[in-house]
Amino acid sequence: MRLLSALSCLLAAGAHAAVLNPWQSGKIFRNTPIAPASSNLHELEARQADGYWLNDIKKQGIAAFNDNPAAYKVWRDVKAYGAKGDGVTDDTDAINRAISDGNRCAPWVCQSSTTSPAIVYFPAGTYLVKDRIRMYYMTTLLGNPKSRAVIKASSDFNSVFVIDSAPYSDQNGSPAWISTNIFLRQIRNLVVDLQAVPVNKEIVGGIHWPASQATNLQNVKVLMTKNPASQHTGIFVENGSGGWMVDIETHGGNKGLSIGNQQFTLRNVDVYDANIGIYQLWSWGWLWQGVHFHDCGTGFDIGAINDTSREQQVGSVVIIDSSAERTGSFLRTNWTQTSKAIGAGQVILENIELKGVSAAVTGPDGTKLGGGDTTITAWGQGNQYTSSGSQRWQGTFDAAQRPKELLDPNGNGKFYSKQKPQYEGNAVGDFISIRDRGAKGDGKADDTTIVQNAITDSVAQNKILFFDHGVYKVTNTIYFPPGARIVGEMFAAIMASGSTWADKNNPVPVVKIGKPGEKGIVQWSDMLVQTQGPTPGAKIIEYNLESQAGSGVWDVHTRIGGSKGTDLQTPQCPISAKTNDKCLAAHTNVHITKSATGAYFENNWFWTADHDMDDAINNSTRVSVFTGRGLLLEANNVWLYGNGVEHHAIYQYQFANVKNVFAGYIQTETPYWQPNPDAKTQTYYPRNATLNDPDYNSFCAGLEVCDALGLRILNSENVRIYAGGLYSFFRDYDVSCSSPDAPQGNRNCQTRILSIENPKSVQLYGLSEVGVVEMLTVNGVDKARWSDNLSVYSNTIGLISV
Ligand SMILES: *[C@@H]1O[C@H](CO)[C@@H](O)[C@H](O)[C@H]1NC(C)=O
Ligand SMILES: *[C@@H]1O[C@H](CO)[C@@H](O)[C@H](O)[C@H]1NC(C)=O
Ligand SMILES: *[C@@H]1O[C@H](CO)[C@@H](O)[C@H](O)[C@H]1NC(C)=O
Ligand SMILES: *[C@@H]1O[C@H](CO)[C@@H](O)[C@H](O)[C@H]1NC(C)=O
Ligand SMILES: *[C@@H]1O[C@H](CO)[C@@H](O)[C@H](O)[C@H]1NC(C)=O
Ligand SMILES: *[C@@H]1O[C@H](CO)[C@@H](O)[C@H](O)[C@H]1NC(C)=O
Ligand SMILES: *[C@@H]1O[C@H](CO)[C@@H](O)[C@H](O)[C@H]1NC(C)=O
């Protein structure tokens, strides 16, 4: 079987991925029927305490908007479905039963759903599988971080993927879901073992993971045999609009990771003994942070070229704080001064430590940067715009200094980061369950008082507050004081409803983290905040805390509309309704205020819905939900890792009067309905000068299309953007302005999307855009047009320094 031979750019309805099509339909998979669940499954409670609090805690998660919340099980233990985990028994069917039980959103028959979430738990053990494990929508596969379960492929393994999170149909090769609509899923704390599979049997991926926003692979290892003839790949991603992975380890195999997606952030990747450490299939842009190759043939291979068009398939990569030891070339590229497309194949390397590496960078005609034992401070290739003009370059460059406030305190010069806590060192007695405290979490009862009291008490008792899965309706602000540690089960949600948020000129927070002047640590993870019905005065998250190290907001997403229970779905907010007060749903999504410092956000999707995730009948019908501001940053010393901010009327990101920001990968989308009305019109949310809202009347004077800015950096100092994508796919729902097939001169969905005003040391790496004419506007002057920076469908500038 020949794989990975072809790349194609395409636009499917609602999906905007340059995508890979390696599949010959119908030939790849045997369709293993899943045996029916035994009738007494729900009595089979094989779950045993194993010292991991998330398993040990009483199971009270409820899928609030499921058709049958009383019977639906959010938590499933594979052993309750008959898996043995003894390394001998074939556990494939039992695991697949644990995943599929209970009328869930199944591959091919259901496009997406928020009402049938599941955590599938693997107690420590070795689970032998003879065929692929097939994920359903909104699923987390979870192991015990103290003793990770091993999924072991048998010697006669019968598929090309072991964990297949988005299967292709055996019949016609069609994918289970549109990859750009795969949200809300995780795999954590598992090991996949391919060592029993003969090396000449092709394994395309131990884990197959096309994914988009609000997803996570965390603390995952793939074991493969160390053999140069190996046909095995650890992790395979071919499509999607991601995404986030962290703490990934592969051993042996042909490729550690083989990976392509619009944009992604990966941190802490260790690849041992692979022929090719990381094969980059394609990208618009990417941030790799902390990648370490050990004894690999090649580190990164980003050389993919389309056989016909001869164009580079990788738009850009930014690689920082990484290393290689005893490895061939750290990075292989096919970029040259004359390679096509002119904006493709761009690279930034910063702080890369090499030991016993034959070359740092190799190109089509030999070594571009020597290896040995050395540290690469800053090296790149591609298109650059700096105060001294623009050029196409390959070589070292003067990177802006890293602000010391953003660095790891241990003095290694790397950027500070902190993984999402899983609290594996805590016992179940260290947690308070919100349901034990009496909260209903059924999407109907008003849980405001119970939730607030539980937070206050958990802090007083130095405990961690656990939000059992559910939708906790609140009618007033929920305040997180310093010391709050809050963790959700499978994206438990806080839902704001009611008149508190009725006034669009008087914003009120839904979740308020600290009060101005307060100092301390807050940790918050794996939750959602959403709204119900019109809440034009809602500020979904307000962050005021002077944060101490250890603070963070990980895998917390805001989802404004587009899901069951929000009353902001297809019936209420059809795209035909242009002036619909019932669909005004937030004044501001996230506000990190002047009072805050040290805020740390990681893997967050701040989303105003563009489609209805629970419209299984009409398949993700578009909706028009109207919100004002995306993420307003007014605080110093802030990290924004792996965020997306989408579909807000005034801007997506605005950094105003700040100092010391790390942001990457950041990603935005302009509202699909703009410019009807445009950003000047202020139909929904009038301009507020106190908040430094852009004055579009002057900014847009003479422009063809005046849409919300994707990123505005105003009066700010030491801003470091480590890759970003600012996308504008539509003009009033018409996609032809961003279509790759459109004639030259198109890509004009909007005129300007990035505005930098009065900068002091602002540097952006790997900045990609879609559908925008002017790529960069500095103090009102346009500096770079899309057409000479055309990359892989997107347009990219590798280095901007102003
Ligand atoms: C390669 O380029 C050709 C010519 O532009 C294009 O038609 C084709 O779709 C590309 N192939 C893939 C698989 O992307
Ligand atoms: C990935 O993209 C290719 C090309 O469009 C498509 O054939 C394939 O079905 C997609 N797979 C997934 C999982 O989205
Ligand atoms: C591009 O680069 C790769 C890896 O460095 C190399 O194997 C390949 O032959 C090159 N492809 C072309 C078409 O030059
Ligand atoms: C403008 O923003 C300030 C600060 O949030 C707020 O107090 C005020 O109510 C807002 N005014 C209007 C008219 O939106
Ligand atoms: C599906 O679309 C039809 C026709 O536009 C509409 O009448 C119906 O209400 C829609 N159903 C849902 C669940 O949105
Ligand atoms: C929705 O998707 C399903 C599964 O792909 C398909 O069978 C059905 O025809 C689609 N319905 C509509 C209205 O497009
Ligand atoms: C591409 O971007 C560079 C800045 O990196 C700019 O100088 C150049 O003018 C752009 N190309 C065109 C055609 O505008």
Automatic annotation (TrEMBL):
Domain spans labelled Rhodanese: 717-738
Entry-linked CDD domains: GH55_beta13glucanase-like (cd23668)
Secretion signal, residue range per the UniProt entry: 1-17
Molecular-function GO terms, alphabetical: polygalacturonase activity
SUPFAM superfamilies, alphabetized: Pectin lyase-like
InterPro entries per the UniProt record, alphabetical: Pectin_lyas_fold, Pectin_lyase_fold/virulence, QRT3-like, RHGA/B-epi-like_pectate_lyase, Rhodanese-like_dom
Swiss-Prot/TrEMBL keywords: Signal
Protein name: Exo-beta 1,3 glucanase-like protein
Organism: Lophiotrema nucula
